[in-house]
Every structure is written in structure tokens, then in C-alpha cells.
Hints:
The relative contact order is 0.05. It is elongated, with a radius of gyration of 35 Å. It has eleven helices and 13 strands. A three-stranded antiparallel sheet has the order 1-2-3, with no helix packed on it. Strands 5-6-7 form a three-stranded antiparallel sheet. It has a three-stranded antiparallel sheet with strand order 9-12-13. Helix 7 packs across helix 8 (258-266) and helix 7 (244-256) packs across helix 9 (274-281). It has helices at residues 33-36, 45-57, 116-136, 154-187, 196-209, 220-233, 244-256, 258-266, 274-281, 292-302, 344-356, and strands at 8-12, 18-22, 25-28, 59-60, 77-79, 85-90, 98-101, 107-108, 314-322, 328-330, 335-337, 367-375, 381-389.
Amino acid sequence: MKEVQVDFNLQVTEDFTWTLHYGGKKLKYGSGELLNSLPEFIKSVEHLCIALTAIDKCKVCIGNYDNKFQNLMTKEHFRDSGSQVIAIVDTTLVGNRTIRHSQCEILILADEVRCIKCHEYRKRLHMMVSRLKQQQHTDTTHPSSHANYRFLTPSQLCSRLRNLHKEHENVRRKYERLKKRLALYCDSDGGVEVDDTLHQDLKVIMQENSSKFSLSPDSFEKVFWEQQEQAASVQKASLMRWHPLMIKWCLYLRHLSGSAYELLRNSGLKLPSQRTLRDYSYISPTSIGFSNQVDQQLMEAANIAECEEFQKCVLLLVDEVHIKEDLVFDKHSGELLGYINLGETNNQLLDLERLVSDDQNQELASSIIVIMVRGLFTRLCFPYAQFSASTLSGD
């Protein structure tokens, strides 16, 4: 005798409440959006027909059984930050292993794929898959790795340096190719050097048609267009007065790459020179040691007047930055920069040590000691002072 397979079982109790048994799951009124549309109590044959007709037209939520989620199904339960079970791996309804939300509605309309809860949980599953891939492909020798050099073995350090060298060479070759292509394009029909007469005609055309551009008055594009028009009309570059937005934008570009910024300037765009940008980027003269002006900037950056008492707690971090040994003449102060400078007191101790040891050669600095101020309860991050030294030891 052939076994009869029952898809679902609708059980009605004496108080006219009902329970739907579907694939080992018990569903009641209120278990989902679809079941809420059914009669709460089945008191007549009409109510029964309505319920059976609606159940027959629905289908089972498939959950999240995609191939990309298979590596996540090594565990049976998924928990949130509060250790509460938020999803499970289910095989009872669709035949395949699928990740189903703990509040899955089970039954959905025929034109839907999955319930709302399972659909919303897919975003978290995608994040888990992405995080898993990053963990699997994390290589301490890869150039993009953030692994500290102190924790690498000698062989890993050699591999890391080789990979960094390869990446540097690839970037350099790519830069040279782009530079040659741009130069070739400018030398060919793509770039034409115009005489003064045509230059003046182009400026007139540009000025006469500038009002036809539908740019928002407050947009950066409008400011950029007006600045280009103004820069093309001045006789000398020193007479140009740049808009603050243009200065900030150019500072950002130069911060990303000074060579790329110069390439943009040489391509024909009217942009401030690096000498002009230097006047805006160096607000205060840099000096070795502590400075009253830097103290004032720190107070303004920390907004100390409006800070709560606990927000005034900070950390002092000391780090070492290696530099090239060399001497530089500062035209503003008339000093030679590059010697070891640890402050007035420490410099006198070094002079005394050299005098005792009969070593009159002043040593060149090979590193910079930087003191950073970090807020414990704020986002304050401020480079407070710097000293030129030969080395920094934690002893």
C-alpha cells in the first residue's frame, strides 16, 4: 500500500482555536502576517474553507540557503550580542540546509521568496561572509596587511618587503605609463598649443557663455568654474585671489599625491601653486620642543572651555619616526636643522657628555620623537611636540 504524504495538518480544538502543523512546526494565529489574515476562531464550515483555501495557496519560506552561506552552516545556531538565538540552521521544510530566522513566518504568499524576517537577516549574513573571507585571505606578508613588524618572523619580514617592493614597482610603472600616454595625447591631435589671439577669443567665449551653465550658486562646481574663469583672465598668477573652497580642495589633492597635483596643474587646469598652498598648510612655524602657540592651539582643539571634568583626562603617547640624516637651512630662523635637539636641558647634558668623552662632533638626528595628546573620552588627537634624536629606547 502506498504511503499517503500529508503536507499540513489543521487541528481545531473545542474552544474553536486552531493549530497548523507543517513539517514538524506548530503555527498558530498571530505567528505571521499570512496567518493573521485567517479567522482567529474556526466556528463554521465557511471559516474552515477560508483557512484551507488560504493555506493551500501559500508556500514555505526558503530561508537563506545560498551557496555563499554554506560555510556559515558549520554551527546550528546564530546568536546576537546578548547571546540570544537569532537564527537557526533548518532542514525540515525545504529539504536543503537553510539559515532561518528564529521568528521566521514559515508560510508566505506564492509570489514571495522569503519572509520579512529572513530577508532582513540576509544583510547580517552578507557581513558575516565578508568578514569570513577577510579572515581567510589575511596574509601578514601582503602589502595591505596591518600586522605589526614586531610579530613577524624573519622569513615573513623578507616576504613582506619583497611584496612591498613589487607593489612599489607596479605603481611606478603604472605612473610612468600614464605619464607617457598623457604626454603623447598632448603632443598629438588631442592637445594643441594656441597663440595669444585664439587664447583671447576662447576667454571671450568662456565669459559670454558662463551664464548658460545651470549650476547651483552654492555648489563647488560653480565656484570651480568661476575660479577658472578668473584665473584665465588675470595677467599674472600672483594677482589671483583663490576662494577658500578651492584652497581646501587643492590642499586635499596635494595631500593625496603631490606628483598627481602637479600633473593636474601642468595639464591646463588653473590651480594654486604648491608655494601658495604652503602658506595655508603651515599655520604656525614649526619648531623643536614645546611652544606657547601650540599650547593655545591644543586648548582650542580640545575646546577646553566647554569640556566636562572627566573629558579633560588625556593620554600622552610617545612615538618614533625615522628620518633621513641631513642638514637643512631654515631661512626664517637662520638655523641649521638636523642635529639632535632634545630641549635646552637635555642638550646641555649631551654637551657635557661630549666634553667628558672628548667627542666634539655633533651627531645628526636619525629619528623624530613625537608626543601625541589623545583624549580618553573624546576624539582629541593632537601632535603636541617633537624632538630630533638618534634613537628612542623603551628602557
